[in-house]
Amino acid sequence: MKKLCLTLICFGFCFYYAAAQDTHYWAQEYNPAGFLTPGAAVALTRDSGVLYFNPALLAFNTKNSASISGSVYQFNSAKIKNGVGTGYPLKSTNVSIIPVVASGVIAVKGGKKFTIGYAIIHNPVVDFHSTQQRDDKFNVLNDDYSPGNEEFIGQYSIQNTVTETAGLLSGGFKVSSRLSLGFSAQTQLRSQHYAQNYSARAFVNTTTGNGLPPIVNDQEEFQVSHYNVGLNFRAGLAYDFLRHHLGLTITSPLVNLKSNGEILSDDIVTDLRLSPTDTINLLASSRQTKLKETWKMPLSIAGGYAYDTNWGQIYVSAEYFSHISEYNIITPRNDYFIRGDGGGSQSFTSSLLKVKDARKAVTNFGLGVSFILTPEVTGYVSGRTDFSYADKNLFADDDGHTVNTAYYNNYHGQIGANLKRRKFNLRMGLLLTYGHTSQYMQAYNFNTPHESNFLNGETVNSPATNFVVGLMFAYIHNL
Question: Residue 107 belongs to what H/E stretch?
């Protein structure tokens, strides 16, 4: 008798949208409220037998074999309305196809029956990239040495790409006819490349000996590339009694196993006058490789309840994520950074180059309803919150860098149907996401560059929106 049940679950593990989702825990459909996705639940939802999020639900898997393949086609659009000034938005748009992820189930029979599940998971977490420029003539410099309007050229670019690949091993078994337990371990490889570049130049309204005007220049470049291999664990419990189904999971914080980071930073200020007689020229430049990286994920507790009705099922769920105090993702070495300060000496301040993170506690909620439309067709409708854990008030000061691009709350919706046959299930659905905030703080502002702010402008809050629409197709074959 075959004991190995091979499955290919694309939609269960790889729904991290390619829009800016880097400060959210429930961005992917594979979570306690991804009701449309098989197995994305904490309590027993009478699904197709593909049950992984709560490892205790593996004990209910009685199918000898199944294979699932599928794809997600999605359009992603994120926009910061006044990203670097009024009339200068930052937009990032992507059209993508989520790849297939492989997993499997081994049903072990005998005196002590239990089920083992495994998976290889790939999540394209975020791919946000945008550029902007202002080429204009207006009053930038002090009229004491540059009267009238100056020619100003400002450029800004940002790129943030994060991917996650994980291996998952789970096991579930029944303690009694109503109660089951399960445990899982997940090893995750997370990599990120973040780059932010800003330049601002203003021509002084005077000429030099060669007839060319002097240029006041501020140029700032920061790049970081890093990866982390980590391990976390999950314990699950499921209780099944007639129409009532309960589930609970506890997921441990991440244990760091291996990491590496690289930082490149280059800042140049030339001929900038804080007063008509006080001119600043500055160079700060550093490249550091083979740095230790730390990536944290918090303790989380998820609960779910499903109730069977005559026409379908009602499912509610929630998951709490604990807070994470401020810490350094990357702490640079004490190498040279600020160059030529006073008589040729060179100095370094590690707080200027550190990459830091801090997270507030978050609780997300989900609600799903399934409808038995015919004996062979079941419809699904669900919604969930997806609150951002980012909060700049958690940081002790402004030193260092935060490498996030999402500072808004998202709200997800799903609608779809499952066609059931004796040998297979065919599932398809529409996935929608909308996020908004009016408190997205600019990094720079092209509207107000001046010597007093090093041509960076006076930053203010801007509205930001995020919209995602996706189509899910899945095929489940029972052998």
Answer: strand 102-108
Q: Which of 178, 201, 103 is nearest to 476 (CA)?
A: 103
**Please, are residues 49 and 61 in contact by the beta-carbon 8 Å criterion?**
yes
The predicted structure's pLDDT at residue 124: 78
Q: Tell me the three state secondary structure of residue 228.
A: strand
Place of tokens 């091993």: 169
Q: Are 459 and 450 in contact (CB under 8 A)?
A: no
DSSP 319-331: EEE--EEEEEEE-
Strands (E) in 242-254, as ranges, are 244-251
Work out the number of other CB atoms within 10 angstroms of the CB of residue 258.
11
User: For residue 290, what pLDDT is reported?
Assistant: 95
Q: Are 168 and 186 in contact (CB under 8 A)?
A: yes
Residues of the chain with confidence (pLDDT) below 50: 1-20, 343-345
The pLDDT value given to residue 354:
92
Q: How many residues does the chain have?
A: 479
Q: Give dist(CA 332, CA 226) in Å, integer.
A: 13
Give the SS3 label for residue 336: coil
Distance, C-alpha 101 to centroid of its chain:
19
pTM strictly above 0.70: yes
**What is the C-alpha to C-alpha distance for residues 131 and 196, in angstroms, rounded to an integer?**
10
**What is the DSSP secondary-structure string of 140-189?**
-S-TTTS-S-EEEEEEEEEEEEEEEEEEEEEEEEESSSSEEEEEEEEEEE
- Say if residue 359 is exposed, middle or buried (CB neighbours under 10 Å; 0-12, 13-18, 19+): buried
Query: Cα angle at 95 between 89 and 101, to 5 degrees?
Result: 130
Architecture of domain 4-478: Beta Barrel (2.40)
